[in-house]
Structure to design on (606 residues):
């Protein structure tokens, strides 16, 4: 055959073009609208799907090649970490509680992201975004699995890891990250992409996977460092995709702008609320600290996000709403969250504690405007009480925000001594909110948020006890019954770090690792 | 002018890559943090294949960056020869 063979290999752009385009077709047996039922109802208008461009131009052959190499590196480190009792080389056993939060609260979201991208990819009529969603969907299920593998090593030695899947759908604080993702993947495909691909990946995941994971490395946790950086290297692609989604949608039709702006406002606020947990992990749960939550926020949100929104201004996009409140909050939210978990340590599957003196000093230095004035005296008071044998455990269930599901712990913008409450009357019921942001998000889609499964309401309605439990029986202990329902072992998984089984075991095992006793 | 950044894991593979990036972008600043290096640059940053190849003495495919990449920002423009990060403002 005298077929002409080009001598030069295909360039990256041509290869991407050949491998991702021309693969779809207009359906005829059924209308395109019926095959892609969710493509139009959100109001987004797309005129030319071929305008979609994936900046990394990744095709499946390259995807497998590089991901396989990353995975081999990761599993080599996980093996070495397990073989060398790496868990005993972390700075101290308090650190492991940050990892409990990670596995229980964050890793399941990776799985939800996998489902969400698979769904969005199926619903987009264009081939470009379909390929991009496919790869991201694969990334996310890999992240879920590598995190489970990395963390299962800790489950052999420490408490609180044992039933993360069961707990995800039940434990009060886990409804915060879970409902965030449920909200995203019950939205339409375009909103999902703006929610997760743009607002979460681009604006917020750096805060989790860069400074926190660098902090894990600093605290001797090689396993977490490796899966974290490995995941974030995929996030670099996801962020690029998220930015591409926004540009693509906005360039397609001017009518798309107000819809996208509303989603950016909503999802930046929703994601920001979820990240409260990460703020607390950075400021309180890493024994050796690299940067404060506030500093990380300034680098990765204010500087980086600021550059992003300045760039997007040419499309008419303005920075997300409620930024003035977010700006003030960075001095407060990590402390407010830690105080809450300290209060509710009896109902948690991880331990809390009062920071040591040098840690308190570090917080004072990092938060000169807020820590000494509002938070340090309270922590010192609790420490004094604990010394007298009165470790404070709050037994009153908190009121939750209907939108973000976080207890009402946040303070009024401008007054850190006043808890912020907002409420809305809707169809004979009163709904409560932690902020103007959460209130406005509710008001935009009340029928969605009135269906929220709020853990505290569910406990009061009697839906969080095991079958056969009689709440009217004499001597009924509601906390014990709820912990049974959570599969949480009282005295092992919960309460203060001081005196915990984790603390004792770590001390004993570390001693065995360094001495011949 | 807005800043872009690229963050890479600290290891033997990235030592030459970081060196190449800093050589090609005199305005860039490297910040070393535990287990990672974050390179910040005003406006734009270019990762050039040929510079990396000179330093490592073998062919280099820019997509190999993914193996040790942690994060980046800015618009990405990738060709066979260069990966450019930039903001439009």
């Amino acid at each position: 055959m005298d077929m002409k063979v080009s001598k030069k290999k295909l360039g990256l752009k041509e290869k991407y073009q050949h491998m991702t385009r021309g693969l779809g077709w207009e359906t005829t047996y059924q209308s395109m609208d019926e095959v892609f039922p969710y493509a139009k109802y959100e109001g987004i208008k797309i005129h030319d799907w071929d305008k979609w461009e994936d900046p990394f131009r990744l095709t499946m052959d390259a995807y497998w090649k590089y991901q396989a190499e990353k995975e081999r590196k990761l599993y080599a480190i996980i093996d070495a970490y397990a073989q060398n009792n790496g868990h005993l080389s972390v700075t101290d056993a308090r650190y492991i509680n940050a990892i409990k939060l990670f596995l229980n609260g964050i890793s399941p979201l990776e799985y939800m992201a996998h489902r969400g991208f698979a769904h969005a990819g199926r619903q987009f009529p264009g081939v470009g975004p379909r390929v991009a969603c496919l790869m991201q969907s694969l990334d996310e299920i890999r992240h879920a699995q590598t995190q489970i593998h990395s963390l299962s090593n800790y489950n052999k030695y420490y408490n609180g890891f044992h039933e993360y899947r069961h707990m995800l759908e039940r434990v009060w604080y886990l409804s915060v990250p879970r409902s965030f993702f449920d909200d995203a993947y019950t939205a339409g495909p375009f909103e999902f992409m703006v929610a997760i691909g743009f607002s979460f990946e681009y604006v917020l995941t750096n805060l989790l996977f860069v400074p926190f994971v660098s902090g894990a490395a600093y605290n001797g946790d090689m396993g977490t460092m490796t899966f974290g950086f490995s995941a974030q290297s995929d996030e670099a692609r996801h962020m690029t995709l998220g930015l591409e989604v926004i540009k693509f949608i906005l360039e397609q039709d001017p009518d798309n702008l107000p819809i996208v702006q509303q989603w950016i406002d909503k999802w930046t606020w929703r994601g920001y609320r979820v990240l409260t947990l990460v703020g607390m992990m950075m400021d309180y749960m890493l024994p050796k600290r690299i940067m404060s939550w506030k500093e990380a926020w300034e680098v990765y949100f204010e500087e980086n996000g600021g550059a992003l929104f300045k760039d997007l201004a040419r499309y008419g996009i303005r920075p997300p709403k409620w930024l003035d409140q977010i700006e003030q909050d960075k001095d407060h939210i990590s402390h407010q969250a830690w105080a809450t978990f300290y209060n509710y340590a009896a109902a948690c599957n991880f331990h809390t504690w009062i920071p040591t003196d040098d840690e308190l000093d570090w917080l004072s230095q990092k938060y000169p405007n807020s820590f000494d004035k509002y938070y340090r005296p309270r922590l010192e008071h609790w420490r004094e009480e604990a010394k007298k044998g009165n470790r404070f455990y709050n037994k009153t269930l908190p009121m939750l925000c209907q939108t973000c599901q976080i207890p009402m712990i946040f303070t009024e913008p401008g007054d850190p001594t006043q808890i912020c409450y907002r409420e809305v009357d809707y169809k004979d019921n009163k709904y409560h909110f932690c902020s103007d942001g959460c209130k406005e998000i509710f008001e935009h889609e009340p029928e969605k948020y009135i269906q929220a499964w709020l853990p505290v309401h569910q406990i009061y309605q009697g839906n969080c006890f095991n079958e056969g439990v009689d709440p009217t029986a004499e001597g009924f202990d509601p906390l014990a019954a709820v912990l049974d329902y959570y599969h949480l072992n009282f005295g092992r998984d919960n309460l203060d770090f001081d005196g915990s089984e984790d603390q004792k075991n770590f001390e004993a095992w570390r001693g065995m690792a360094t001495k011949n006793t | 002018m807005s800043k872009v950044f690229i963050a890479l894991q600290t290891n033997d593979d990235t030592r030459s890559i970081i060196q190449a990036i800093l050589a090609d972008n005199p305005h860039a600043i490297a910040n070393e943090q535990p287990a990672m290096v974050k390179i910040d640059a005003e406006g734009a940053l270019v990762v050039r294949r040929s510079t990396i190849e000179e330093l490592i003495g073998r062919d280099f495919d820019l997509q190999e960056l993914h193996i040790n990449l942690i994060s980046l920002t800015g618009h990405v423009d990738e060709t066979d020869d260069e990966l450019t990060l930039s903001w439009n403002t």
